[in-house]
User: Fold this.
Amino acid sequence: MGDRDDRNDIGRRVQRLRAERGMTQRQLAEPAYTPAYISTLEAGRVRPSDEALRHLADRLGVGYEELVTGRPARLATDLRLRLTEAQRTLATEGAEQAAAQYTGLLAEAETYELAEERAAALLGLGECAVETGELAAGRQYFERAEQCLVDAGAPLPARVPALRGRALAHYLAGELRYAVYLLESTLDELNRGGLHDPDALLLLYASAIGPYMDMGAHARAAQAAELALALAPSAGDPALVARMHRSVARTLLAEGRLAEADASLAKAAELYRTLQLGTELANCHWMRGYVCAQNGELPRAEAEMREALAMLSATRAALYSSQVAVELADVLHRRGKSEEAAELLHGVLDDLSSERGAVHSAGAHRLLGIIAEDARDTEAAEEHYVRALSLLERAGAAGDLADLCRLLGDLLRRTGRVEAALDAYRTGLGHRTAPGTTTLGPAPAQPPL
Assistant:
């Protein structure tokens, strides 16, 4: 049935183009074919060979691909050009503007059944949705992009951005274990299969840092950060170089040099992906800040986290910025800047919830509880601890639950509620784990750096 439909489509297309040009069947056929062959072809009773199609395309003045598929020759390349422009918008101007561009591009790609371009548009929409905090919508876009690539037979490295997007949406929704499972299983498959694509590996390692930290797997988080920084591509000014490649592609496209235009667009798209990795590399600065804080190097920790926050704010990544702000507030509090820390925390809580950044929302309430305790406002402290406990239990963040239960238990004991304090301590004991052992399986295979 599919072959017959294909024959009918080509036949109708040849007849339409011939009529538009005022050609007879004899004029179209000669010198290689007969008018009877053209008549049979236009009726859909024969599927022309590649040689015949190229003859017909040349006589009709159209491209081979356009004759076979019905798509204008420049359509796919022009669509890829506009996809790189949407990438630039997302990397430099923000998610809302980029989403509008990606929506239009998705409609075009679906109309002309361009699988690769459709997947790219879906991926872009997923990234926009995550940056604006629409996690359920983002996850659906990523799933559709991945399925589109699977159907098109794309290799695993090409599917990594969609897989990473799914993991990120689950992580930000508080589903830590599943996020880590997606990232680690993909890393393992890449490394064990010898598919050492540096961009794919960088994206996965950088994305794993946050979930590792929240699950208490600090050693794995530190290792992932160092691997990500080692893999980070080096390009002087990627935005400038990408703009140059995009301009060159426009010129080549205007001259009909499609293959060369595609090559320039591929370079531009790769550089815009590098720009978007600023979000991931900001996480590496955050991780370094965390390590410094653990070692008591608080001034350096503050500097690293401020750098991370500045990088994220520059890309208008509101949800990520809120998460790093919570970590920065903890360092500020430890440096005696509690008032500034509280102001920072109250400023970000509106951007966090149980569905958007549950673990960091809990972290903000925990720290506000500590600050309230320092100010001897036990009622406010208890309220913040209880909110944090509820958020952590929902997310399954075992690494933080035991410590929070201890804080709440100590507060209840000091205010004379011994039985309630014992309940809190028991809850905390039930969540004690050796970080990175009971919550995670074996570490994934590593790349040969």
